[in-house]
Write a structure and sequence with these properties.
Blueprint (H helix, E strand, L loop, with lengths): L1 E2 L4 H7 L8 E3 L10 H13 L4 E5 L2 H5 L3 H15 L3 E5 L8 H13 L4 E3 L11 H16 L6 E3 L7 H15 L16 H14 L12
Parallel strand pairs: 1-2, 2-3, 3-4, 4-5, 5-6
Helix pairs in contact: 2-4, 5-6, 6-7
């Protein structure tokens, strides 16, 4: 479950005794437009509240003007501020413009210490797409082939149906292998996907689809 920093204590209490981890968006999500000191305070506060994972957003302005060193340094500093918490690095691929730029941003995120690379905040369109997901998985595979540690991948935003999700899972299996079909290495941003999965489960039980109005839109 991913929440804003102030909601981490509430989520931790609600999920106590379960296997569900709590992630928190930080670093001035979703814009990333705050001074680094403010971003790091945001991260430390979320971790102090008990977050198991941190979702950071890269400074797309810095990236697009070619200041790749700043992007790298901010990710590395955020990783240090995370302590034992895992770090997911959101690239906001819909703003990066080209596949070459997405490939470079993925490599920077991995080399700077990200544990996961993630397509999108869900606030910008286009968000997750199959071509971008394939590209990011190929970057991870290249690093893995070079002896790098395993890096996770999360497409977020735009995956709205179980049938779409199956297409993504096929891409993962064919690119990375069946062992990558594991939440420690691959996850969906499931806010929009959840309702359709529930509808599919209803169909398996009763042989027909339920209306969308029977499920929460939250």
């Amino acid at each position: 479950m991913c929440v804003y920093p102030n909601l981490v204590p509430i989520a931790k209490r609600a999920l106590e005794g379960s296997s569900v981890k709590v992630a928190s968006v930080a670093t001035a999500f979703p814009s990333g437009q705050s001074p680094l000191a403010v971003k790091l305070d945001d991260v430390r506060r979320a971790v102090g509240f008990g977050a198991d994972e941190i979702d950071m957003v890269i400074d797309r302005g810095a990236f697009l003007r070619g200041d790749y060193g700043k992007v790298f340094d901010e990710i590395a500093a955020t990783k240090e501020a995370c302590g034992k918490a895992h770090l997911k690095v959101i690239l906001e691929t819909g703003e990066l413009g080209t596949y070459d730029a997405i490939r470079l941003a993925s490599a920077i995120a991995i080399e700077a210490g990200g544990d996961f690379i993630k397509t999108s905040t869900g606030k910008v369109q286009p968000a997750a797409t199959l071509p971008v997901t394939l590209l990011m998985l190929e970057v991870i595979r290249d690093y893995q082939d070079a002896g790098w540690r395993n890096i996770g991948m999360k497409p977020a935003g735009g995956v709205r149906s179980a049938k779409q999700a199956l297409q993504y899972l096929c891409v993962v299996q064919e690119t990375m292998g069946p062992e990558w079909l594991d939440p420690d290495l691959f996850r969906f941003g499931a806010s929009a996907l959840l309702n359709d999965v529930l509808m599919q489960l209803e169909k398996e039980r009763f042989g027909r689809y339920a209306g969308e109005d029977y499920f929460s839109k939250d």
